[in-house]
Amino acid sequence: MNFWKYFYGFWALIFVLFAYWQFNDPDPEIWVSIYAVAFIFCLRGIKGIFPKYPLTLVVLACLIGAIYYWPDSVPGWIGQEIEQGDLTMKTPEMEEGRESFGLLIITLVMLPGLIKAWKK
Questions:
Q1: Which of 108, 87, 104 is nearest to 20 (CA)?
Q2: Are 44 and 67 in contact, with CB atoms under 8 Å apart?
Q3: pLDDT in tens, 96-112
Q4: Which element (helix H / strand E) includes 114?
Q5: Which residues contact 120 (CB under 8 A, 6 or more apart)?
Q6: Do 18 and 102 meet the contact criterion of CB atoms below 8 Å apart?
Q7: Half-sphere exposure at residue 99, Cβ-oriented, CA atoms within 13 angstroms
Q8: How many CB atoms lie within 10 A of CB 5?
Q9: Residues 38, 41, 45, 50: what is their CA dihedral angle, to the nearest 10 degrees?
């Protein structure tokens, strides 16, 4: 097995966990769906299948979403998270920070597959 199979296998597992953890979110239907799409693309990535246009759409949408939800102060947001000490949402800013970083993770994970798709 090559590196990319392990890479996308690892992230498929992580995205399933992310989707599971979204069930207690204020808007689970959105975030479970987003992580489910990332999971599906990771499963395809394990097989070396990278559909160019759908993957481009996912990466662009997640990048735009990450920028849209980007916290005003990343150190401030991380400080709030550390100070709180648990995963409950105390402020809308904390939730948006988490959402932003989730979308950024999806973008970065899908980017190698997107590059491979456009090189073909």
A1: 87
A2: no
A3: 888 899 999 999 999 99
A4: helix 92-119
A5: 52
A6: yes
A7: 23
A8: 13
A9: -130
